[in-house]
């Protein structure tokens, strides 16, 4: 897969952070070399150099040890642990010799993408370890049992804040069936940029799981769109995908809302089927999540909530005087209209004298 032209295009897109890192590494190598040449003593080196400069005619006539002291400039005291400083220089030169290949990762079929990227970062991190070790030696703080192993691998998890701020880019070639991206979240910090070159059938929208406010995330089938990550100043992941997958872009500079930052240019029409460890259900969830993220929220109509019903007034406690007063006479019960008419008729009959009527 490294022969894939997309790999060259991806490395070109990350040329700026790659070249910047190599320049820093070259400068570190030169500083360590100067330190070795001026402060790390090699047994008899100055004496042998003086003997060689005077040549055969000085043999038996001139004391090379004495002349070395006369002609040598005053230098600082020798540095302890000169051997580990020399090893640090070897590490820098080894990393420089690998050129762009230092930033290229190939994940074998069935391999673990996260583990491969982690290993590459630990390898690159040896450059930071070399600088750190030389500083420790200069400060007299170097401890062999604790620090020597840094030159074998300096994992990303152990990088300092300053080391994580250094611009860095990696290109990883991976088979579509192995495109499991969840673990890559561990590395999306500060200025890290990653381009995935995907070969073969792949899940439709795996990178949707990496979207966060300040991270550039893009799936595309067009290598020309790598310009987006070239210009982005911050962490980012771009996957060069097969044509039949979703194509979208999350641009942190696109706007204040998620919907403004999301652009979807293509969605696959066929229903996804199980691919490797990725089930059809998981792939459909990714697609639904992608559409949801790009959909602006509907405006919510604000309606005035009805006022809560007034609470019934609680009867007040009777006062002491009211408690001692006799109960008031009960008012007569209200009489129903029919009962009143009957009683009135009976009363009129009682009052009427009908004895003289014939």
What is the end-to-end distance?
Answer: 137 Å
Strand segment count: 7
Discrete helix count: 14
Fraction of residues in β-strands: 5-15%
* Oligomer state of the chains in this structure: single chain
Give helix % range: 40-55%
* Radius of gyration over all CA atoms, rounded: 43 Å
How is the biggest beta sheet arranged?
Answer: 7 strands, mixed
Order of helices and strands: HHHHHEHHHHEEEHEEHEHHH
Q: Shape from CA axes?
A: elongated
Uncertain parts: 41-47, 70-78, 317-335, 354-358
Quote the average pLDDT: 80
Which class do the helix and strand fractions yield? alpha/beta
Could you give the order of strands across the largest sheet? 1-2-3-5-4-6-7
What does this structure look like?
It is a single chain. By secondary structure, this protein is α/β, with parallel strands linked by helices. The protein contains 14 helices and seven strands. A seven-stranded mixed sheet has the order 1-2-3-5-4-6-7, sandwiched between helices. Helix 2 (15-39) packs antiparallel against helix 5 (82-97), helix 3 packs across helix 4 (64-71) and helix 5 packs antiparallel against helix 7. The longest helix has 25 residues, at 15-39. The radius of gyration is 43 Å and the shape is elongated.
